Amino acid sequence: MKEKERKIRFISGLQNALLFVCSLLLFFALAEVVTRLAWKQAAHSLDKVTGQYRFTPNSETSYKTSEFEFTIKTNRFGRRDWEWTDSVMKDPCNIVFIGDSFVFGYGVNDADTVPTLLERELEEQGKKVEVFNFGGGDDFFGYRFLTREAIEMGIHAKTILIGIFLGNDFICPCSNKEEPVVKDGQVLWQPVDRHAGRGKSLSRGHIRTPELADSAFYQFLKVRISSSPLFTGLLFRIGKSLHREIYPTSTGYIFLRDWTKDQEALFYSFLNQSLDIAKIASENERDVVFVIFPNKAQVENAVDLTSSIYDADLPDKRILDFCDQHGLRCLDLLPPLRSAYDRGQRPLYFSGDRHLNAQGNRLAAAAVREYLQSQTLLCNHGS
Fold it and tell me: pLDDT higher for 153 or 32?
């Protein structure tokens, strides 16, 4: 009798387990269908001229996401700025600001970009200065190209600012499953098509194993978690308790306290390109300042991120040490942005998109203005 009862309990438990698994699968299937129908991941990209670091000249384009809507207007050079006159371009007291979408001002209107706000900051100090918006580069390669372009097109500005964004500028353009090839301190890039392997023809006998990244529901959860300081902090705290690397982006390695030799070589292979930019500036009698834009997690989740594995401040310190070692001028925007966030808990970044919002841009522009004044990099003439 007892044996029969045990069998009945076993069968009942097995049925309940199967029912639970089926319910779970049904839930994820329905969640996947609903997500694909109702949600579309925002594409954080700008319509540049193919193969170039500029935009369609004399154009006006509007962008709209679930978070914001903004319009950009370009001049004859394909830059997000007003039409530069010859006299403005020849004025050495003006400033060139080079960078990626953070300098360009993705997510905000023309009046709220960092270059325009820097102009306003300087004007309030009695200095009428044009800050040329050369946002649109993707990485250090792009910044070097734009430095040359600004000089060669006849801009005489003595001061060049280079915006470095920690979230994008140190990504390895190689397969996530392979270590970068490093030789004699140099990274030998192995470009990989991020979509390679997807959608291969079954007639050729290629059957690709589905990946978690293929799921729209997974992507939805990832965006929602990464856009929330609360959930991001929880994720970091879990990693801290488990003593595991759990930073959810492709540049998480820059926060590691202990690097492999390849990770260290990768980081400095990017940073060494700033020396090429500084050389171009020096050869043309220009001053160059590298401006470090921190990512959202560094500002909002520094305490949660910092652990025995990670240090939220470490990449900035490494860059500043590099600058000191090579005699480069560098400004770190992490302290003023974090201090402002800690004081008011007001968001300085868009939640899902994670670019600086108008308030964050204002704080960045004010910090840049203070630095330029402290380094006597501004002309003495007024309005």
Answer: 153
Q: What percent of the chain has pLDDT over 90?
A: 49
Domain membership flag for residue 249: no
Give residue-wise pLDDT tens across range 28-59.
777 667 766 665 655 556 677 777 788 999 99
Exposure string of 223-245, with b = 16+ CB inside 10 Å and e = fewer, is beebbbbeebbebbbebbeeeee
Distance CA 378, CA 25 (A): 63
- The answer, yes or no, to whether residue 160 has pLDDT greater than 60, is yes
**pTM for this model (two decimals):** 0.78
Arithmetic mean of pLDDT, 4-24:
74
The total number of structural domains that make up the chain: 1
Residue 315, phi then psi, degrees to nearest 5: -60, -35
**382 located within any domain:** no
The CA distance from 266 to 253, in Å, is 10
| Predicted confidence (pLDDT) at residue 233 exceeds the cutoff of 80 | no
CB atoms within 10 A of CB 210: 8
Domain presence at residue 342: yes
Domain contains 195: no
Here the tokens at position 64 are 């709209």
Token pair belonging to 177: 């499953």
DSSP annotation of 112 = G
Range of the domain at 66: 60-169+271-298+311-374
Helices (H) then strands (E): counts for the chain:
14, 9
Dihedral angle of Cα 312, 315, 321, 324, to the nearest 10 degrees: -110
* Mean of the per-residue pLDDT values of the chain: 81
Place of tokens 């918006």: 133
Q: What is the mean pLDDT of residues 260-264?
A: 87
pLDDT at 322: 98
**Distance separating alpha carbons of residues 220 and 155, to the nearest angstrom:** 44
Please give the sequence-ordered ranges of beta strands (E in DSSP) within 44-185, or none if there are none.
60-64, 69-73, 95-99, 131-135, 159-165, 181-183
116: domain CATH number is 3.40.50.1110
Q: Are 161 and 378 in contact (CB under 8 A)?
A: no
For residues 13 and 60, give the distance between their C-alpha atoms in angstroms, rounded to a whole number: 64
d(CA 373, CA 124): 13
Percent of the chain whose predicted confidence (pLDDT) is above 70: 72
Token couple for 272: 């060494």
